[in-house]
Amino acid sequence: MSSIPVTTDCPILVWMLSLNREYTKEEYDASYHIIKECVPHENIVYNPQNADTFRQMMKSMLPLLMMRHRRIPRAKWRDCVTPAGKHWIEQIPDDLPPEKFLHSMIGYHLATENSLCGMAMTQGIQRKVVNIGLGMKQLIAEPRGVSVRAYVESFAHKLTPLELSLMAPELGDEVMLRRLCIIISLKQAYIKAIGQPIGFDLSRLEFNIPQETVIGDGHPLTGWEFRIFKANLGVARKDLLVEEQYQCVCAFFRGTPDTKFIWHDSQKELESWVQFINIDQMIKVIPKLTA
């Protein structure tokens, strides 16, 4: 992937890592050593039997991979964090002119959902680039066997009456599930972009999808860009290849007078700003991540 150009309009890139197969203990150990050496702020407990810790490590290696692609050595950048927990990468200025240094900050947000790890990032000045968030929701009713209607109802406390009205049972299971996942992903992306903790009351936000508007605590939220897209994965589960679909949203505050909802429905539209990789590709590059 090409480097993010130095510009003031904060171009967005997203990387999606598919956990498309089981991992080996050797792969787990290699990942663990890299995290300990290069991402010491990630306090991951060593437990090769725990798939959640492997997923956490894969997610935490995405910024390393991104900087490796930009050919910036690990010793030449540092990971910074705001009081609200928003991360950005600052390059060691060395030979960068002041203006270029000012616009070289890389804000990013990491997310996981079942077999998918994601990173949304943008470059520009620090106070802008940290306002980025990524939301992801698998299009599946859980636990297995529960009806879509019951699954939607289990989210009722996170939705407004208007949002629930967009998921009426007569629309059918597929539409109900898709709309639920879109709205939950939008809310997740927004609260992560503003640095809110996990316990944030999602019903304080209302996304009116037909009108493409959003309000928070009864007031219109303007200046936001929401990019809405899907990730389709093929995941090996023992001897079976299972197809999984994820609804994804990248939220970024641009400070414009309006709020934009940008829908990406085709793979071709995504190729310019979303990159998909898998476990094999990540493991293969591990020896180079410390350079």
From TrEMBL:
GO molecular function term, any single one: magnesium ion binding
Keyword NADP applies: no
Top-level taxon in the UniProt lineage: Eukaryota
EC number, as in UniProt: 2.7.8.7
Protein's UniProt keywords contain Transferase: yes
BP terms from Gene Ontology: lysine biosynthetic process via aminoadipic acid
Gene Ontology CC annotations of this record: cytosol
Keyword annotations from UniProtKB, A to Z: Transferase
Matches recorded under Gene3D superfamilies: 4'-phosphopantetheinyl transferase domain (3.90.470.20)
InterPro entries xrefs: 4-PPantetheinyl_Trfase_dom_sf, P-Pant_transferase_sf
Record protein name field: holo-[acyl-carrier-protein] synthase
Species classification: Eukaryota, Fungi, Dikarya, Basidiomycota, Agaricomycotina
